Amino acid sequence: MRHSTRLIMCLGALLCLGLAAPMTTAMDGGNATISFGQWQTGPAPGPPPVLELNRFPNLSPRERNNHQLIPNEVTIKAGGAVNFLIGGFHQPIVYDDGTQPEEINVNTPTPPTTTSGPNPSPPAALIDDPTNRIYRGLDPSLQPLDLSGASFGQDRLEVVWFSKPGTYLVICGIRGHFVNDGMFGFVTVLSRDE
Ligand SMILES: [Cu+2]
Question: How far, in Å, from the CA of 181 to the mean position of ligand 1?
């Protein structure tokens, strides 16, 4: 009898722990979406004038891609996520709380790290400054070939989780996009009580 009472108490305690655990470990700080590069719409300057961006059947003309983060500032809470919707040839990189764009060493290493896939040729120079870097995205040149085998899937999604409060710098790792086009933004992560 004593045994079964103890067993019931143990089971009861386990049940309570089981119920309590998800409440203490669940971290849902919401999410935000950043359009990380965008395909343009027409018209584009000619000659001749181009009224549309025609990607059919499978074209990704690099001169018709917009190098911005839209929006370039988002706010979530700790335990939340940012969904980087990547349109075009880009690489999201996240730096730790407080990092500023001017702190990124865009000239390291020598020679520079480049994309490693066969396309583009010559390869594109990448930013590879590991100081305070907390997330480094995929090499866009290594994404799977599309069904035609003629091109590769540039457009993709990377979902990044932020567990701690802070202000995080996000840049595009394609060197020219960051240096020439200012392709960066910030993720503000509030504490869960704010
Ligand atoms: Cu880019």
Answer: 9
